[in-house]
Amino acid sequence: MSGGLYGAGTDRTYEKAGFGAPVRRGSRPAIVVVDLTRGFTDESYPSGADLSDVVAATTRLIEAGRPADVPVVFTAIAYTEAEASGDSIAWLRKAPGLRGLVEGSDAVAIDPRLPRRPGHDLLVVKKGASAFYGTHLAAALTGLGCDTVVVCGATTSGCVRATAVDAVQSGFPVLVPSACVGDRADGPAAAALFDIQAKYGDVISLDDAVRYIGSVPVPRPPGAHLHEPTPTFMSRRPRV
């Protein structure tokens, strides 16, 4: 389950507790891309790191789901000028580096390398770590008929982990492709993936995620059933 990240003793303790069972994979997944905005994917920003590999992996996953119109939801942290400079957001007192994520700035723009389709893919703006907290994401996923959430994005130890926790608490099985998530430091990222795998979802490879997303049936176009031949039935007199 853990690959021995924290030693055999931890593995035995978690196994005894019954952690790490595989999740059920549904037939209508959604890809939730958490905070892959320039403020997180560009290391020139205080809150950023070079997440080029994560952007490329997430792009591959999104494109694998396009033929079946797999829903893609992007999230972005964005604060008003008053929120960014004031004290109404308690999180910003703990993480003041996030005060630069101001509405309308380049820092909160979705990374342009991602294959986002404006007007088609949903955008959820949030104020905290979880993509579910204080947003309409759970209702949107339910409205789209989704039964599984594939979580990508940044950062692994922060917003990705928080989103995975709230996703499963909202009733959605969670998959996290490890290549599609990134962080500023390896240690916190590894710890978060360990925790997600143990308690909240399955941490999987990119190839596995692409196969799963690519296996979703292509939806039939609206009205397709109107052009199907109508079955005919021949009446037969009962034998006596």
Structure overview:
The protein has helices spanning 8-17, 38-41, 52-65, 81-85, 91-94, 137-143, 156-169, 186-199, 206-214; strands at 29-34, 72-77, 122-126, 148-154, 174-177, 181-182, 202-204. Strands 1, 2, 3, 4, 5, 6 and 7 form a seven-stranded parallel beta sheet that branches. It has 240 residues and is of the alpha/beta class. It contains nine helices and seven strands. 34% of the residues lie in helices and 14% in strands. Helix 7 (156-169) links the parallel strand 4 and strand 5 (174-177). Mean pLDDT is 92; it is low at 232-240. The radius of gyration is 21 Å and the shape is globular.
Question: From the alpha-carbon coordinates, what is the Rg to the nearest angstrom?
Answer: 21 Å
Q: Which structural category fits the helices and strands?
A: alpha/beta
Measured by DSSP, the beta-strand proportion falls in 5-15%
Mean pLDDT: 92
The tally of beta strands, per DSSP, is 7
Indicate the overall shape: globular
Largest sheet: 7 strands, parallel
List unreliable stretches of 5+ residues. Answer: 232-240
Number of helices: 9
Distance between the termini: 68 Å
Q: Please give the oligomerization state of what you see.
A: single chain
SSE order, one letter for each helix or strand: HEHHEHHEHEHEEHEH
The proportion of residues forming helix, as a percent range, comes to 25-40%
